[in-house]
Amino acid sequence: MSRALRLGTRASKLALAQSGDVAEALTEATGRAVELVHISTEGDRDRTTPLTQIGGTGVFVSALRDALLAGQIDIAVHSYKDLPTAPANGLTIAAVPVREDSRDALIARDGLTLDKLPPGARIGTGAPRRIAQILAARPDVQCVPIRGNVDTRLGKVTSGELDAVVLAVAGLARLGRADEITEALDPDVLVPAPAQGALAVECRSDDPDLVELLGSLEDAGARAEVIAERSLLAALEAGCSAPVAAWATYSATEFILRARVASLDGTKVLTEARTIAPHDDLHTDAEAVGRQLAADLLAAGADTLMGRTA
Ligand SMILES: NCc1[nH]cc(CCC(=O)O)c1CC(=O)O
C-alpha cells in the first residue's frame, strides 16, 4: 500500500470545495488515498486590503508553491485564473480537469438582471476587467470595491448595502450556491477572465510518476482553452496595462478565441476574435492563436487603453 498523497489547500470554503473535488476524482481515477493539508496564505490573513495592493492574485498562490517545493505537500490545486503567466521553476501543471462554467454571474436584489438594475445602482466588484465591461454596458451604474469570501459578498446584497455583486459562476457552482445567481452574464457582454472556471493541478516536475498519475484528470479541450487565453494575456501584459478579458471555446469542429481590452471607465472597448480548425497539434495552435489575437488587439490600439487599479 502506498502512502496517502498530500494535497495542499487554502482553508477558504471555495479552496476546500475545489481541493476536495480534485482529491475525490483522483482517488476515483487511481485508487490512491489523498489527504488535505491546510496552508495559510497572505491573502487569507489580510482580509481588508484590496487585492490589487497586496501583490494581486499571486498572494494566494505562492504559499502553496513554496510548500510544494519544500516537500511539505505533493499536490496543489489552484484556480487557474489566479496563477501568474510566468511558469514556476521546478513545478508542472500536470492536469487541467474538465472546466466549470467560465461566465461571470450577477447576483442582484429582487431577482434583477444587469439591464433591469435602476440608474445609480451599486454593484460590488473591484476587478478592473468587470468594472470596465459593466460600465461599458451600463454607464449609469456605480461599481464599488469589495473583498471577502463569497458569503460576505452575497451578504452585502441580502443586507441591502449593495444592489448586486458580480462573481464567477464557477466559484458559486463549486460552493453549491449557483441558485442565488440572478443572471449568468452573456460572455459577449462580460467577456470572462483568462482561465476563469478552470483548475490547475500542480506538482513537482521531478516527480514523473505523480505527473503521470495526475494526468488521469486531464481534459485536453480545457487545457487548450486555457493555453490560448493565457498566451493572449502574457503577450498583452508586455504591451498594455488595461483590463484584459479572454474566452476560448473548444469543440470537435471549431476552436474560437475571443478577447477584449477596455479602458477602466468603459468608454473605450476593443473586441477581437479568431477561429481555427482544431487538429492534432491543438495545444501548439492554441498558443499561437493567443499570440496572434494579442497582436491584433495591439494593432487596433490596445496599448493606448490605460487601466488604473484604483
Ligand atoms: N478572483 C478570485 C477568484 N479566483 C477564482 C474564483 C472562482 C472562479 C474560478 O475558479 O475561476 C474567484 C472568485 C470570483 O472571481 O468570483
Characterise the protein shown here.
This is Porphobilinogen deaminase. The N and C termini lie far apart (54 Å). This protein is of the alpha/beta class. It is 33% helix and 22% strand. The model has no long low-confidence stretch (mean pLDDT 92). The protein has 9 helices and 13 strands. It binds the ligand NCc1[nH]cc(CCC(=O)O)c1CC(=O)O.
Question: Which helices and strands, and how do they pair?
Answer:
Elements: E1 5-9, H1 13-30, E2 34-38, H2 42-45, H3 59-69, E3 75-79, E4 91-95, E5 104-108, E6 122-124, H4 128-137, E7 142-144, H5 150-158, E8 164-168, H6 169-174, E9 183-184, E10 199-204, H7 208-214, H8 220-239, E11 244-250, E12 255-262, E13 269-276, H9 282-299
Parallel strand pairs: 1-2, 1-3, 6-7, 6-8
Antiparallel strand pairs: 3-10, 4-10, 5-8, 5-9, 11-12, 12-13
Class by SSE composition: alpha/beta
Query: Helix coverage percent of residues?
Result: 25-40%
Per the CATH scheme, the topology name of the largest domain is: D-Maltodextrin-Binding Protein, domain 2
What is the strand tally? 13
The average pLDDT score comes to 92
CATH architecture of the largest domain: 3-Layer(aba) Sandwich
Strand order in space, largest sheet? 2-1-3-10-4
Low-confidence runs: none
> Which molecules are bound in this entry?
the ligand NCc1[nH]cc(CCC(=O)O)c1CC(=O)O
Total separate domains: 3
CATH class of the largest domain: Alpha Beta
Query: How many helices does DSSP assign?
Result: 9
Terminal CA distance: 54 Å
Strand content: 15-25%
N-to-C series of helices and strands = EHEHHEEEEHEHEHEEHHEEEH
User: Can you identify the CATH superfamily of the largest domain?
Assistant: Periplasmic binding protein-like II
**What profile does the largest beta sheet have?**
5 strands, mixed
Radius of gyration: 19 Å
**Could you say which overall geometry the principal axes of the C-alpha atoms support?**
globular
Catalytic activity: 4 porphobilinogen + H2O = hydroxymethylbilane + 4 NH4(+)
InterPro entries: HemC (IPR000860), Porphobilin_deaminase_cofac_BS (IPR022419), Porphobilin_deaminase_N (IPR022417), Porphobilinogen_deaminase_C (IPR022418), Porphobilinogen_deaminase_C_sf (IPR036803)
Organism: Cryptosporangium japonicum
Enzyme class: transferase
